[in-house]
Design goal:
single chain; 285 residues; alpha+beta; Phosphorylase Kinase, domain 1; Aminoglycoside 3'-phosphotransferase, Chain: A, domain 2; 2 domains; 5-stranded antiparallel sheet; two-stranded antiparallel ribbon; 9 helices; globular; binds adenosine-5'-diphosphate; Fructo-/Ketosamine-3-kinase
C-alpha cells in the first residue's frame, strides 16, 4: 500500500493505518500520511475492472458539477487475478451533522444537469457484485424492461429464486410495463445505487455520494430506491421536490421501480426478500 502511495506521488511517512468496517464487498482502510488522508479499498475476488468502473461512475457525477464525490487518486486494473486497489480521498465528517437540504438540492441539480438523448449506458456497471449489462435505448421503459427486470428474472431462474407463480407474475408485469413506466422522461444522470449507506457527510455536513452504479434514466427510479430502505432525512425530500418535482403518478409506479432493487437483493441474498417482491407483483398482476 505504501508503495502504491509512493507511485501516486505521496512519499511522506504513514502515520496511521486502520481497517474501516461497513463495506459488503471490499476490504476498506483509512490511511493517514504526513501529507494526506486516504480511503483505500482492496479486493481480489472482483472482476479486473471493478474499481475502474467505480472510478468512471464517480467521474461522471463529478463532471455535472452539482454534488460532491471523493477524489480518486488511483485504481488498478487486474491482469492476472491479483489484488486490486482503489485509492480515494478520505471524507471526514459526521452524518449526524449532515445537511439534508443540501443533499436534496445537489441531487436534484445532478438529475437536472444536461444529459444526452438516450437512456441506459454504454458500459456495464455493478449493482452489489452483480454485473449490470447496459446499452443505449431511445425508450426508457424498454431499457427498464430489458436491461433491468428481464435480466433479474433470468438470473433468478438460474439462481432458483423464481418459483412458478412469481416467475409468471413477473413476466406478466414485464409485458405490460409500458402501461406504467414513461417512455421518454427527462434523461437524468442517476447514481443508480442510492441507498442510505451510499452518501456520506463531509466537513461541515456537506454531502458526498459514493459507490455509484450510474445510468441515464428517470429520476423517479433513483428517488424510489432512496425510499425503499430509508436513511434519508425529510429535509432531503423537501428540498429535492422544490427543485425537481416528482411526477403526479410517482406513488403509483414507485413499487415497480423498487422492484428492481428487491429482485437484486433476492438474487444476491435469497428468499428473505421474496415476500416483498411478491407483494409488489400481486399489486400489479
Ligand atoms: P464497499 O464498496 O465494500 O461497499 P464502501 O464503499 O461502502 O465499501 O465503504 C465501506 C465503509 O467506508 C462505509 O462505512 C463507508 O461509509 C465508508 N467510506 C466509503 N468511502 C469513504 C471515503 N471516501 N471516506 C471515508 N469513509 C468512506
Amino acid at each position: 500500500m505504501q508503495e502504491k502511495l509512493r507511485q501516486i506521488g505521496d512519499k511522506s511517512e504513514v502515520k496511521e493505518f486502520r481497517s474501516v468496517a461497513g463495506g459488503d464487498i471490499n476490504n476498506a482502510y483509512y490511511v493517514k500520511t504526513e501529507k494526506n488522508k486516504y480511503f483505500i479499498k482492496t479486493n481480489e475476488k472482483v472482476p479486473s475492472d471493478f474499481f475502474q468502473l467505480e472510478a468512471k461512475g464517480l467521474e461522471a457525477i463529478r463532471q455535472t458539477n452539482t454534488i460532491n464525490v471523493p477524489k480518486v487518486y488511483h485504481y488498478d486494473i487486474a491482469t492476472n487475478n491479483e489484488e486490486i486497489m482503489l485509492i480515494m480521498e478520505w471524507i471526514a465528517g459526521d452524518k449526524r451533522q449532515a445537511n439534508g437540504n443540501l443533499l436534496g438540492e445537489n441531487l436534484a441539480s445532478m438529475h437536472l444537469a444536461e444529459a444526452g438523448p438516450q437512456y441506459g449506458l454504454d458500459i456495464p456497471t455493478f449493482v452489489g457484485d452483480l454485473v449490470q449489462e447496459n446499452s443505449w435505448y431511445d425508450s426508457w421503459v424498454e431499457y427498464y424492461q430489458k436491461q433491468r427486470l428481464q435480466t433479474q428474472l433470468e438470473l433468478g431462474i438460474q439462481r432458483d429464486s423464481m418459483p412458478q407463480m412469481r416467475r409468471s407474475r413477473l413476466e406478466t408485469l414485464i409485458d405490460k410495463l409500458d402501461n406504467y413506466i414513461p417512455k421518454r422522461p427527462k434523461v437524468s444522470l442517476l447514481h443508480g445505487d442510492l441507498w442510505g449507506g451510499n452518501w456520506l457527510a463531509g466537513p461541515r455536513g456537506i454531502p458526498y455520494l459514493i459507490d455509484p452504479s450510474i445510468l441515464y434514466g428517470d429520476h423517479a427510479f433513483e428517488i424510489a430506491f432512496t425510499e425503499l430502505f430509508g436513511g434519508f432525512p425529510t429535509s432531503f425530500y423537501q428540498s429535492y421536490q422544490a427543485i425537481f418535482p416528482l411526477p403526479d403518478y410517482y406513488e403509483d409506479i414507485k413499487p415497480i421501480y423498487q422492484l428492481f432493487y428487491l429482485l437484486v437483493h433476492l438474487n444476491i441474498f435469497g428468499e428473505g426478500y421474496g415476500g416483498a417482491v411478491d407483494r409488489i407483483l400481486n399489486q400489479y398482476t
